[in-house]
Design a protein that fits this description.
The protein is 0% helix and 44% strand. It has strands at 8-11, 22-28, 33-36, 41-46, 56-61, 64-65, 69-72, 79-80, 82-87, 90-95. The chain has a six-stranded antiparallel sheet with strand order 6-3-2-1-7-8, with no helix packed on it. It has a two-stranded antiparallel ribbon with strand order 4-5. Strands 9-10 form a two-stranded antiparallel ribbon. The model has no long low-confidence stretch (mean pLDDT 90).
Amino acid sequence: MHIHKNDRVKLLGGVDASKEPSRVVKINLSEGTAIVQGRNMAWKHLKRSQDYPHGARVQKEQPIPLAKLMVICPNCSKATRVKMTVQENAKMRICAKCKKPLGEDK
């Protein structure tokens, strides 16, 4: 997987593409989507309940396909592709531009 939880990512398309990079909150591998903090927001209408006696409208992040996200390298601060290497029996993600590791080993 080229994107992990807590990675900083840039959106490649859509309304939020021109905004600053954000963090990945959750990844759904079976659907190939991720939820990015503060991006792809939609209104959710809630019925009346004890918490919301008059009902409510809340904004909620919607899933984004992983193909529309690009990882920001913490070393060179650029949007980059991710390459996988095996070092000492562990897979590592490295930046395609600066060739330095991205985050922790998996």
